[in-house]
């Protein structure tokens, strides 16, 4: 059959076989046709565009040929890659067949050698047992000497020959470690942390070594704990202890390094390792510091002995620090920094101890002692502020001895205790003051000639002393103490004013001849006391205002207002007493005797002179104020008595006589007051002019003008109504 017939037959067979058409292909063909139609409709939209149809056909033919060539190139490359991949798969299949064949042969060989391996394992166990027996035979001389060496080492420890004892102990431990290593062999310890029977037997045989370690450690720490006392006598023991500690530390490091270098071989640590005796050394030193300082006047810490206890602590700490710096520091390696460590131990002990002390129910003096010691003495050059100690360690890095919150609580407790004491003293001082008022003698006179009692001196000295003591701690505590003192003074002045009122009531109830002859004197002394207390109060407030950083208000009106109220009340009682003594003379006004003889005004002037003489015992400005008040009181009561009494003048002569008497009284009062140093003019008003104006009205001649004259009088003196 020719090729043409074969091709024809193939074509017929292809025509008979249904061709599967891909949906994506049909869709792509439709999209291509649509795009071509759209492009053709756009290009050949006019008849004249058909002239370029040949050009477009040639260009598209070239583009189609180019695309076909690229497709053929891509398909060819893909087919070549597939062919290379199939070749690699064939090679891999051949290699896998070879490997499988070799593994099968190795499996057969291993089955043949299994019996030989069992025989070798038996030989290995026999060899290991032989090595153990050989080690036991070689160690028999040492094992026989263990008991005697343990006894010898015990004797050395008891006699405190520490270096020799430690050398013997190291030898025993070395024997023990070698025996254990030979028993364990290269496989390490049997099991996961379990001890075999052989290892347990060895450890029991060397059990005396562990007891020796404990005994040596006990003696060692006893020597370290008493290092301060040994340093001044014989430091050999302390040096030996330090050398032993360093030896043990070196052994610990050696075993740890060996274990790290053979971490994959499960190498066990010797029994009791690591011992960490260097850390224990510092722990024992810290415990020794705590025990030593607790014994410093500890039995007398509570109560008044707290200040002595703190002083004893100071001397004990500084003495020990001197010993550490000059003696113990030379007995230890430089990297110990023993002075720095000792400073840290002291600071930690004091933090705990003062925290305990702060929780006690302390009195004011005890709280002051604690605050002063913590804030000033501890950091001063007499203690931790010494330059040599500052170079070793900055104490501020260790934190405060008492926290800021704890200090504030202590300061608040101090202020409360002082407040209670101040309140009690003020109460006692007021009781003494009330007792002084009942004395049958005039008050004391100071260097300025003014009356006074002991009350202001006691109060002033107490408040100023408390402020001075508080300032020794801090300005903030001084401010709190001053504020507290001013508050208590305000309470005292309130009670003081009540006492003055009650003093006046008692005097009015008992106004007979047996009444207190010095009633007025003590009222004037009370006024002077208030003036002195005002000066003290202003001085304390000035101390508050002198520091702008304080948190209190510079102006506290409470005590000053209370002082002003007390002074006003005392002055009012003084004027009441003056009125009481003037009243008998005022009752004689408008009497026939008064009109004819005029003895009332001289008597009144005598009373005024006596009072003004006593007023001179009062400090300024109250002295001037009392004199002015007595002038006004005399004139007002004179006029009030005239206005309240009814008198009938039957003719001009009687009115003229009455007016003349009133004019003479006014002139006498003015002259007498001026002779006592009282200016007749207060502001722009002359009190005695009121009497003269009233006399002019009484002596007025024209009745028709009387209403106008009275109207002018009322306008000038509106309160005359």
Automatic annotation (TrEMBL):
Pfam families: Sec6 (PF06046). One of its GO terms (cellular component) is exocyst. InterPro entries: EXOC3/Sec6 (IPR010326), EXOC3/Sec6_C (IPR042532). GO terms for biological process: exocyst localization; exocytosis. One of its GO terms (molecular function) is SNARE binding. PANTHER family: EXOCYST COMPLEX COMPONENT 3-LIKE PROTEIN (PTHR21292:SF12), EXOCYST COMPLEX COMPONENT SEC6-RELATED (PTHR21292). Belongs to the SEC6 family. This is Exocyst complex component 3-like 1.
């Amino acid at each position: 059959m020719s090729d043409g017939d074969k091709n024809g037959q193939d074509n017929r067979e292809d025509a008979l076989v249904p061709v599967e058409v891909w949906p994506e292909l049909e869709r792509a063909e439709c999209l291509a046709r649509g795009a071509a139609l759209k492009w053709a409709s756009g290009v050949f939209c006019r008849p004249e565009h058909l002239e370029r149809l040949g050009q477009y056909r040639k260009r598209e033919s070239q583009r189609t040929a180019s695309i076909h060539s690229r497709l053929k190139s891509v398909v060819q490359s893909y087919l070549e890659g597939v062919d290379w991949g199939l070749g690699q798969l064939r090679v891999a299949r051949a290699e896998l067949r070879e490997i499988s064949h070799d593994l099968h042969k190795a499996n057969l060989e291993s089955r043949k050698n299994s019996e030989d391996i069992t025989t070798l394992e038996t030989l290995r166990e026999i060899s290991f047992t032989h090595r153990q027996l050989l080690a036991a035979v070689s160690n028999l001389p040492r094992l026989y000497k263990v008991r005697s060496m343990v006894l010898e080492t015990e004797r050395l420890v008891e006699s405190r020959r520490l270096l020799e004892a430690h050398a013997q102990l190291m030898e025993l431990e070395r024997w023990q470690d070698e025996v254990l290593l030979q028993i364990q062999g290269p496989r390490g310890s049997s099991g996961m942390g379990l001890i075999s029977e052989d290892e347990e037997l060895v450890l029991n045989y060397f059990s005396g070594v562990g007891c020796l370690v404990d005994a040596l450690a006990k003696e060692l720490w006893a020597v370290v704990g008493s290092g301060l006392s040994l340093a001044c006598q014989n430091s050999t023991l302390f040096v030996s202890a330090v050398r032993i500690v360093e030896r043990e530390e070196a052994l610990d490091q050696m075993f740890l390094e060996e274990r790290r270098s053979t971490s994959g071989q499960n190498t066990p640590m010797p029994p009791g390792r690591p011992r960490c005796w260097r850390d224990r050394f510092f722990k024992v030193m810290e415990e020794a510091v705590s025990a030593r300082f607790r014994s410093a006047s500890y039995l007398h810490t509570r109560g008044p002995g707290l200040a002595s206890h703190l002083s004893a602590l100071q001397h004990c700490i500084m003495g020990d620090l001197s010993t550490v710096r000059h003696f113990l520091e030379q007995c230890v390696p430089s990297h110990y920094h023993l002075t720095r460590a000792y400073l840290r131990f002291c600071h930690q002990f004091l933090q705990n101890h003062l925290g305990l002390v702060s929780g006690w129910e302390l009195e004011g003096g005890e709280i002051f002692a604690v605050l002063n010691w913590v804030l000033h003495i501890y950091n001063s050059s007499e203690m931790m502020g010494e330059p040599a100690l500052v170079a070793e360690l900055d104490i501020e890095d260790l934190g405060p001895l008492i926290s800021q919150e704890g200090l504030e609580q202590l300061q608040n407790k101090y202020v409360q205790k002082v407040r209670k004491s101040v309140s009690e003293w003020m109460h006692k001082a007021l009781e003494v003051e009330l007792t002084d008022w009942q004395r049958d003698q005039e008050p004391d006179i100071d260097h300025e000639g003014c009356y006074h009692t002991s009350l202001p001196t006691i109060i002033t000295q107490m408040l100023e002393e408390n402020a001075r003591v508080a300032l020794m701690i801090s300005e903030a505590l001084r401010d709190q103490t001053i504020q507290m003192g001013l508050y208590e003074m305000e309470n005292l002045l309130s009670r003081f004013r009540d006492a003055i009122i009650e003093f006046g009531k008692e005097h009015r109830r008992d106004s007979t001849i047996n009444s207190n002859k010095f009633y007025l004197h003590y009222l004037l002394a009370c006024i002077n006391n208030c003036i002195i207390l005002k000066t003290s109060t202003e001085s304390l407030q000035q101390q508050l205002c002198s520091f702008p950083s304080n948190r209190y208000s510079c102006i506290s009106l409470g005590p000053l207002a209370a002082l002003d109220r007390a002074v006003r009340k005392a002055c009012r009682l003084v004027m009441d007493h003056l009125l009481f003594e003037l009243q008998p003379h005022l009752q004689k006004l408008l009497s026939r005797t008064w009109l004819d003889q005029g003895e009332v005004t001289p008597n009144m002037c005598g009373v005024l002179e006596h009072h003004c003489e006593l007023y001179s015992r009062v400090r300024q400005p109250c002295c001037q104020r009392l004199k002015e008040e007595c002038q006004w009181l005399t004139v007002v009561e004179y006029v009030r008595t005239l206005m309240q009494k009814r008198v009938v003048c039957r003719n001009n002569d009687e009115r003229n006589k009455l007016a003349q008497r009133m004019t003479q009284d006014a002139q006498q009062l003015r002259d007498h007051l001026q002779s006592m140093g009282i200016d007749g003019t207060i502001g722009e008003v002359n009190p005695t002019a009121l009497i003269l104006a009233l006399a002019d009205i009484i002596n007025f001649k024209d009745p028709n003008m009387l209403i106008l004259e009275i109207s002018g009088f009322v306008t000038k003196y509106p309160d005359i109504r």
